[in-house]
Specification:
With 174 residues, the chain is an alpha+beta fold. It has 2 helices and 8 strands. It has one domain.
Length: 174
């Protein structure tokens, strides 16, 4: 493959800049909680895991990136040729031939296409659950089990406290 540019040429490179944006959580619709209807038709409200990060409380919003097309002027400082591809170098950065152009306008057209494709991929990913290794059903079951356990523990400790109160009165009365 014959390279279009040579070492020392200045070229326009199609690239993307990103800005962080916020949108309403697609799971809780900004309410920060979800209502789960159990098998006995009772309902339980739980915190939304879709808009919470780690141990932080839900925010009602999720962040995403907006990709903006740009064109950068770069000097070719090296190149790597193979049978069917050309890779240009600019200060140790790899510049792929399909993103290198002679004019800024060509680079911006290519960058606009890249931005559109990346934004579409990000939108698709935005409305998927990601890294939630537990289901909502698991969360509800776990927390109901914990509540039952704590209620039993509370009952036990109240009975122990009641016994302690009767013993204290006996000592005081004697």
């Amino acid at each position: 493959m014959e390279p279009k540019f040579k070492i020392g040429d200045f070229v326009w490179v199609a690239s993307l800049d990103k800005t962080e944006l916020q949108t309403v959580c697609p799971e809780c619709f900004g309410k920060k909680c979800l209502t789960v209807i159990l098998g006995d038709d009772s309902s339980v409200t739980i915190s939304c895991a879709g808009c919470s990060q780690g141990y932080q409380e839900p925010t009602g919003t999720i962040s995403y990136w907006d990709w903006v097309p740009t064109a950068r002027l770069q000097k070719i400082t090296g190149m790597e040729l193979s049978e069917d591809t050309v890779e240009y170098r600019s200060n140790y950065h790899c510049l792929y031939a399909d993103k290198v152009f002679a004019t800024q306008e060509e680079a911006l057209v290519a960058a606009a296409k890249l931005a559109e494709e990346q934004n579409q991929r990000d939108k698709e990913q935005l409305f998927k659950k990601e890294k939630n290794n537990r289901t909502w059903a698991w969360h509800v079951t776990y927390h109901r089990r914990q509540i039952k356990h704590l209620e039993k523990s509370l009952e036990y400790h109240r009975s122990k406290l009641a016994v302690a109160k009767t013993k204290t009165k006996e000592v005081i009365n004697e």
